[in-house]
Amino acid sequence: MLMTAEIPGELLESLRCASASMADIRALAEKLGRLSPGQIEPVLQGLLDAGEDRALSRLLQVCAFDEVKLDPKVLCGCLGVCEDLLDLAPCFALQDESAIEPLLGAAADEELPLERQSYAARLAAELTAKFNLDPQPVRKALWKLEQAARAPEIQLLLAESLLILDEEATPGDARLPRWSELTLSAFLPERRPRSIVGGDYTVRRPVAKLGRNDPCHCGSGKKYKKCCYAKDQDLLRDASPYAGTTRTDLKTRPGLVDDPAVILNLRAHELKKLAPAALSEGQLPSGYQRALAFGLRELAFEMLVEWERRSKGQTFDQGHFEDLIEDVLQAGDLDLARRIRDHCGDQAWWQPQAIAFRFDLLENPGRFEPLERDCRKAVCQVLDKETEFDEPLNRLAYDFAPRHPALAIAFARAAIASNPDRHFDNEVLLDVVRDARVDLDLEPGGDPAEALFDWIEDRTQLKEKAQAENREIERLTAKLNETLAALEEKRQALRETEQALGTAGAKLEQARGSHPAGPQKFEAAAASDSEKEAALRRLRDQVAGLKAEIGEQQTERRQLRKLLTNERKKLAELSQPDAPEERPGAAEEAVVVEPVGRPVLPEYTDAFRKRLVSVAPPLAAKAILAAGRFAAHETAIWRQTKPLERLPEHYRIRLGLDYRMIVHWQPGKVLRILDVIPRQDLESWIRRQG
Predict the structure, then answer these.
(1) How far apart are CA 605 and CA 620, in angstroms?
(2) Which residues, given as ranges, of the chain have pLDDT below 70?
(3) What pLDDT does residue 585 have?
(4) Is residue 565 part of a domain?
(5) How many Å apart are CA 270 and CA 294, to the nearest integer?
(6) Same domain, 545 and 403
(7) 424: number of CA atoms within 13 Å, CB side?
(8) Which residues on neighbouring strands pair with residue 664, listed in sequence order?
(9) Residue 450: CB partners within 8 Å, gap ≥ 6?
(10) Which of 142, 303, 384, 505 has the highest Cβ tally under 10 A?
(11) Residue 580's pLDDT is what?
(12) Distance CA 157, CA 176 (A)
């Protein structure tokens, strides 16, 4: 029984019997009085070591009620034992930034279940936001947990924690609620909740049912309610589905029943107290798996040793030791790994080289530091003078090529995928890959890096085409805006001219009606009328001219809008990755060409012969070699061959980044090498032939 100088045994018993209600917590607080953290923390540690989850939770709730600020390390240690996760939340309202580091340690503790690790990370996020600290350490912990989270409620908890880090530290209605800011009364009911006896199984009373005022069955002579009633009720509440045992008995001595399910219900602090010898033979496999799940690798090893001893080699699989040593080496526990290796002796591992390599990683940690430094520069995209001209992954591919061709290929693939915009470097790396494949007794062509390079090349072409379309749209938009502005000016001039024409016509009519009689005045009026009519004709001509100009500009505007709409459609099609591509040869690239029929001797056209004279000698040599390999049905060159859909029986063969060779092939009958053309001229060549 746990006894301390700070808290008498009677009060400790009250802690064990109290319920999670505000009424019981107030009563406990009055009994305990105003205790200091120095008095409470040893008791907490004792309850923690004893695994008394209920008493531990009640004491934590009393500390929250009395506003006692506890040592954050002790408080975080209670995460694995406390009865309910939320029992700890009010205690963290009193904590400062010093609690964040222990909380992050709890978030990374393998002995805790994932939901308790996530809960610790949530509290760390709340304190980080509260004190406006650097959120990156907490983000890293949350990102790590996200990779293991599968349950939706845990994923939601982690997502909320990440949102909290991005919110302001000041209180507000729009922000997410903080568990560490809630009061104890928000978690606990006012009155003691009803007790639940047993579970989904039948419970048998230890003695015949007695009335509360009947004499106690123990023979003390006292009334039952004043003697053994409370003890019997606790026994009923602790009942298990196994006759003659309680749940407490099963936690301390699971070997009382031969059921592996008992082990699967234990938590880490309960499992650590078990001795493998106390388990039944059927419980040892479950004990091993459960210990390994909690990261208790020492205990898992002891479980395996006991399992091996009892089975005497009949039902025990030695592969369990290999599984365990791989997990131990992954965790970095070199001492335990050596113990497992020594125990297994001369046992042949299924993957001896992998295990030896992992031992070497732990025994010689500095051996791979330069390699890690180079890879870290590449992955983190550290830009400096060295990496600008000597990209780390490129250099590693070249460094490994003479002696370690497989590593050279691996780093070359990584370099191409990591730096898709380094077109020249990537094309040279393909030559390194082909040369390394020859060293590995593989065909030079056909490496996955080539397909990746082709995809990058096609993506670059699409990007360039999209940029050109964007520039064309901007040009057409600017021209359309200019046309609209000029059209508005013409319309304004037309309105002014029509207004002037109307004014002149009105004056002319007025002048005609007001002329006095007489030959001289009549001649003068006629002359004046002829001048005004001439002016009216000029104005009408101007109106007609303006209308014609407006009509032309409207026609131009319609054409510009049509062009702009077409360009936007093209850009939209380019921006949709799932849409069919419009570029030349896109449909053909999806078709896989395979050699059929007998090999045929190629015929070289005059155009092909002339082209070989004009191109660079390396390209000419590559074209001749490709023609021969195509004729011989070599698999590597056929992977570089695509059909031309608009020209039946015509194919293009890739010659590096910028050139394509065109052939006419009828299986088993005709093979004509037609020409070598630049890649950008492929569309025009197809149109000319069509």
Answers:
(1) 14
(2) 1-10, 168-173, 193-207, 313-314, 385-387, 508, 511-533, 535-536, 571, 573-592, 690
(3) 41
(4) yes
(5) 11
(6) no
(7) 2
(8) 650, 672
(9) 430, 433, 639, 640
(10) 303
(11) 40
(12) 11
Of the residues 186, 205, 234, the one at which a domain ends: 186
Phi, psi of 514 (to 5 degrees): -105, 10
| Element holding 604 (H helix, E strand) | strand 603-604
Q: Which of 12, 69, 10 is nearest to 37 (CA)?
A: 69
Residue 432 belongs to domain spanning:
369-446
Q: What tokens appear for 209 in the block?
A: 């049912």
Q: Give residue 200's identity as a one-letter amino acid code.
A: D
- In contact, 513 and 499? CB cutoff 8 Å: no
The amino acid that residue 101 corresponds to is E
Supply angle C-alpha 219, 14, 182, rounded to 5. 150
Contacts 24+ apart (CB under 8 A), 425-429: 425/391, 425/394, 426/453, 426/456, 427/453, 427/656, 427/657, 429/394, 429/397
Q: What is the b/e burial string over 583-616, where b = at least 16 CB atoms within 10 angstroms of the residue's CB? A: ebbebbeeeeeebeeeebebeeeeebeebbeebe
Looking at the fold, whether 400 and 467 belong to one and the same domain comes out as no
CB 632 within 8 A of CB 624: no
286, part of any domain: no
Residue 677 confidence (pLDDT): 92
* 520 and 419 share one domain: no
pLDDT at residue 229, as a whole number: 81
On whether the CB atoms of residues 537 and 505 are closer than 8 A, the answer is no
Q: What is the rounded CA–CA span in Å between residue 302 and residue 308? A: 10
CA atoms within 13 A on the CB side of 69: 6
Q: How many Å separate Cα 19 from the centre of its chain? A: 43
The model's pTM: 0.62
Q: How far apart are the C-alpha atoms of 287 and 299, rounded to whole Å? A: 9
Tell me how crowded residue 318 is: count the other CB atoms within 10 A of its CB. Answer: 14
Beta-bridged to residue 604, according to DSSP, are 673
Q: What is the pLDDT of residue 3?
A: 41
- Contact (CB, 8 A) for 430 and 453: yes
CA dist 100 → 135, 136, 171, 177 (Å)? 11, 12, 20, 19
47 and 160 co-located in one domain: yes
